[in-house]
Design a protein that fits this description.
Strand content: 25-35%
CATH superfamily: GHMP Kinase, N-terminal domain
Number of helices: 5
CATH architecture: 2-Layer Sandwich
Largest sheet: 6 strands, mixed
């Protein structure tokens, strides 16, 4: 279905048909592989259909932010590797990679997924910094949801290194990260009057608007990110939230 016209796609969607036979609100098959890196404190590979992302978690001792002297912090970065798509190039971070990282960061931060106070070593002096690095391996659509899922899986299996007050010993582990919430993200797009979940790369090319919604285990919306030049009605957003809550349960089940 490469390079299909929007008219052809809209016509197919009007009949309730997608290129791979899925329902409009149905996500692709999910595969999660944990501990794919020996050098990271935590790591995971996620496949969402043919979309593939790897995330590694590293930990360092740093100084706290002035307004949060007793809390650790998270730093999320994303690298869209050229091998994952002909649209990605080497060089400085693109707008797309910056947005990818920021939206993953927002879901984790706004849901209080990590108990940051438990990452404080010495108030005002030393805290743990959790570095979450995202690498795209294959872009077959919906990198955002795959990246968030991989980040959560990597955080979930991460082990904290030992720290004696002076030096970090990465060979000695002292326990898991204080992960208390699993805020999965589900992205929907609008094409004409149709709402689609977990879109392929071909479907994504023709979107009018998109909305990424992060939800918690309690069924609460903790973050949103809107994209595309088109508008979304209140009914569109309700439909997208409904799909996100439904698919969020499926993704969270895979994590557990």
């Amino acid at each position: 279905m490469n390079n299909v016209s929007k008219e052809y796609l809209v016509n197919s969607l009007s009949k309730g048909k997608r290129e791979d036979g899925r329902k409009l609100d149905e996500i692709r098959k999910v595969q999660i592989e944990n501990n794919v890196s020996k050098n990271a404190e935590g790591s995971a590979r996620v496949k969402l259909g043919d979309t593939e992302v790897i995330v590694g978690v590293k930990m360092e001792i740093g100084t706290p932010y002035p307004d949060n002297l007793d809390e650790g912090t998270i730093i999320v970065s994303a690298e869209m590797l050229p091998l994952s798509s002909p649209n990605f190039e080497s060089g400085p971070p693109s707008e797309e990679s910056i947005e990818l990282a920021r939206v993953v960061d927002r879901a984790i931060r706004e849901s209080d997924a990590l108990d940051l106070k438990k990452l404080c070593v010495e108030k005002g002096e030393k805290v743990w910094m959790v570095l979450i690095d995202i690498y795209t391996i294959n872009d077959a659509g919906n990198l955002q949801d795959a990246a968030t899922l991989a980040a959560l899986a990597a955080l979930k299996n991460a082990k904290m290194p030992s720290f004696d007050g002076e030096k970090v010993d990465y060979k000695k582990k002292k326990g898991s990260l204080p992960l208390v919430e699993l805020p999965v993200e589900c992205t929907s797009i609008k094409i004409k009057d149709k709402i689609l979940s977990d879109v392929s790369a071909d479907e994504y090319k023709h979107l009018d608007a998109r909305l990424t919604i992060a939800t918690t285990e309690k069924g609460e919306v903790c973050a949103m990110q809107k994209g595309g030049e088109g508008t979304l009605t209140a009914e569109d957003i309700k439909e997208m939230v409904k799909a996100s809550l439904k698919n969020g349960k499926i993704l969270r089940k895979e994590l557990k």
